[in-house]
C-alpha cells in the first residue's frame, strides 16, 4: 500500500520569498517520488523525481526537493517565488518492492 499527503490546500507567498510545498508519504517498500505541476490552462508537467542517490534533487523552473527518509517527506522548494509559479502542484509516490523470481 502507498499514499501521499499534501497538508496545505493553498499556499500564499510574496514574490521573491522562498516557496515550500509540503509532501509526506507512506510506503511499504522503496519509495520512488515525483513532483508534477499544472499551470493555468495547461496539462500536467513533470518537475522532478527521486529514485536513489543524492537526497537533494534539482528540477525544472528552479525547483528542488529533498528526500527525507526519517520524516517520510519530499518537500518541494524554490528559493525565490515568481508570480508565474502560481499553479497546482502534485506529489506522487511509486512503491517498489523487490521480490524473488519463482
TrEMBL record:
SUPFAM superfamilies: Immunoglobulin. The keyword Ribonucleoprotein does not apply. PROSITE patterns: IG_LIKE. Residues 2-102 form the Ig-like domain. Keywords: Adaptive immunity, Immunity, Immunoglobulin domain, Receptor, Signal, T cell receptor. One of its GO terms (cellular component) is T cell receptor complex. It comes from the Eukaryota. GO terms for biological process: adaptive immune response. Signal peptide: none annotated. The keyword Isomerase does not apply. This is Ig-like domain-containing protein. It comes from Aotus nancymaae (Ma's night monkey).
